[in-house]
Amino acid sequence: MKLTFWGVRGSISSPLSNAELKQKLTTALKLFIESPYAQSRDIEGFLPTLPFATGSTHGGNTPCVELESHGETVILDAGTGLRPLGLDLLKRKPASGIIHLFVSHTHWDHICGFPFFAQAFDPSITIRFYSPFSDLQKRFEYQQKFDFFPVSLDFMQAKKEFILLKENEPVTIGKDLKINFFIQHHPGISYAYSFRDKTGKAVYSTDNEMFNADMEYVNAYKDFIRDADILVFDAQYTLSESFNKTTFGHSSPTFGVELALNAGIRNLILFHYDPLYSDEQISNNLRTAVDYYNLVNTEMKKYADKKLKVYSAFEGFSLEI
Ligand SMILES: [Zn+2]
Ligand SMILES: [Zn+2]
């Protein structure tokens, strides 16, 4: 199983500004002048030495993750990252002609890429939409009403099938990819999905507020994510900001680490960053998460047997299990 990230920002798309670009260039040029690469003008050799927040960006697109399992194309959410994913899929057409789209919920940032999904205009493609929302089709149609978008959902020629997921009735895709869902704390409800095939288990859990959650919810959540090889986790805020934004429906990297350690997760991927956060801030949040992990794991020996890896998702990042 392999996950590739096409959009990692929460709430609204947030492209890099000119001021941020200028700041990155200034920092990079200063570092270059002071580096041993300056003498030989070896720019190609120097670039990989830059910190991530200086030499790269997490990207500005909203949630969209591609999951590949035994040749099946599965997409998690249809944020603006769906547009570049669609363009890339044009070069490597889905083998079966079927695209499986799992929708966590229908807040704009998770569906507004769909009208720009190239495959939705291809009559040879079937798109299967999955969610426990009984009115999911109506919601997607509503997004493309003429007052909001010039092309209706109906006009998009791909075959569209809406599959209603039911509790305790996992669905199977292809040979052995089994999917379950979990109802999360979020305004209007969102769903986490777990995917299991022969290679392992991945959980996609975005738009989920853990602060103020009662123990019953926390325990049920831990059971759902337990022993996952990959957990994609809502890390919208810093820990302190999450205390000030209760009821907003989001979590923080520190919560992610604590839950991952408690539930035996192998790889924790932070995701759905606040649009106000710069690349620098997101890198700081990752550092805080890793520091917290080192504190509880190494110094307190609380989880000394656990081997957790923590990543910050960025556009183009992929992880295979
Ligand atoms: Zn969101
Ligand atoms: Zn949301």
Key phrases:
321 residues; globular; single chain; alpha/beta; 14 strands; seven-stranded mixed sheet; binds zinc ion
Strand adjacency order, main sheet = 6-5-4-3-2-1-14
Write the element-wise H/E pattern from the N-terminal end onward: EHHHHEEHEHEHEEEEEHEHHEHEE
Contiguous low-pLDDT stretches (5 residues minimum) are none
Number of strands: 14
Largest sheet data:
7 strands, mixed
Bound molecules: zinc ion
State the share of residues found in helices, binned by percent. 25-40%
| Number of helices in the DSSP assignment | 11
Shape by Cα distribution: globular
Describe the structure.
There is one protein chain. With 321 residues, the chain is of the alpha/beta class. The protein has eleven helices and 14 strands. The protein has helices at residues 18-34, 37-40, 43-46, 52-55, 82-91, 108-111, 136-143, 215-225, 239-244, 253-263, 279-299, and strands spanning 2-7, 64-69, 72-76, 98-102, 126-131, 159-164, 171-173, 177-184, 190-197, 200-205, 230-234, 267-271, 309-312, 318-320. The strands form two sheets. Strands 6-5-4-3-2-1-14 form a seven-stranded mixed β-sheet. A seven-stranded mixed β-sheet has the order 7-8-9-10-11-12-13. Strand 8 (177-184) and strand 9 form a beta hairpin. Helix 10 packs parallel to helix 11. The radius of gyration is 20 Å and the shape is globular. The N and C termini lie close together (6 Å). 40% of the residues are buried. The mean pLDDT is 95. One zinc ion is lined by residues 105, 107, 186, 190, 207, 249.
